[in-house]
């Protein structure tokens, strides 16, 4: 349960944005140069999928590194309790404070249909987390996650698992984005009965399977969701904050990084930012 809850949080802010350059089609990249004695590897994940099997190239990269670093340390024993604490809206706010009676009924019906419960018991949960609860309903299969797979490999290899940011830093994103904006997307999901979201998620999975990270990054170019509006909070600032951490970890020892594939592309994507910092980042062939 702890890992699944963490994956839902990751999925919330694993976002895509408008690409400024085309990258080679690969979800696995080698980081070298700039004084590194041994290369590290950067893997673009998808947090919710039908098949999170580790392929031969990714396994080879895992074998050549000595620690796994994800967006957050998903092996932290206090992770679940910290997430539970950060799930609720501040100042006693609930969804009822932001929506009409009609919209509240639509959201309630959505949860009854898909979750087997009404919204009343969880109406004080931040809207982003409510949407995350519905993410497994986007796919017609048991949910799998590359983060879970990577954690399993790291444990099997007796390697340490670390994070590029703390869970507190990640949760702060949901405070930086107004509740009103979050709720607007939730109401859209409810009124559409997840139809558009399922179609978009299916497209995202198809593009991810093709490893076209530039096309994946471009997916929301014409999107009107909160993700596009608050790209800076959800993506850019986090990517920039990760670069010094990647530099530090990579200097210490060869490291395998697993982050949402939406973080890879674009002018402010992790690949370009690492190159600007002096590293050679090449598609794994």
Keywords:
285 residues; alpha/beta; 49% helix
Describe this structure in words.
A 6-stranded mixed beta sheet has the order 4-3-5-2-1-6, with helices on both faces. By secondary structure, the chain is an alpha/beta fold. The protein has helices at residues 2-13, 56-63, 79-86, 101-115, 127-134, 146-156, 167-176, 179-192, 195-210, 213-217, 226-229, 231-252, 270-276; strands at 28-32, 40-45, 67-70, 160-163, 255-260, 280-283. The radius of gyration is 19 Å and the shape is globular. The model is unreliable at 11-20 (pLDDT under 50). The chain has one domain.
Strand and helix map with partners:
Elements lengths: L1 H12 L14 E5 L7 E6 L10 H8 L3 E4 L8 H8 L14 H15 L11 H8 L11 H11 L3 E4 L3 H10 L2 H14 L2 H16 L2 H5 L8 H4 L1 H22 L2 E6 L9 H7 L3 E4 L2
Parallel strand pairs: 2-5, 3-4, 3-5
Antiparallel strand pairs: 1-2, 1-6
Short description:
This protein is α/β, with parallel strands linked by helices and 285 residues long.
**How many H/I helices?**
13
Q: Tell me the number of strands.
A: 6
Mean pLDDT: 88
- Helical content class: 40-55%
Class per helix and strand makeup: alpha/beta
Number of discrete domains: 1
Q: In one word, what is the shape?
A: globular
Question: Residue ranges: pLDDT <50 for 5 or more in a row?
Answer: 11-20
- The whole-angstrom Rg is 19 Å
Placed side by side, the strands forming the largest sheet appear as 4-3-5-2-1-6
Order of helices and strands: HEEHEHHHHEHHHHHHEHE
Binned strand content: 5-15%
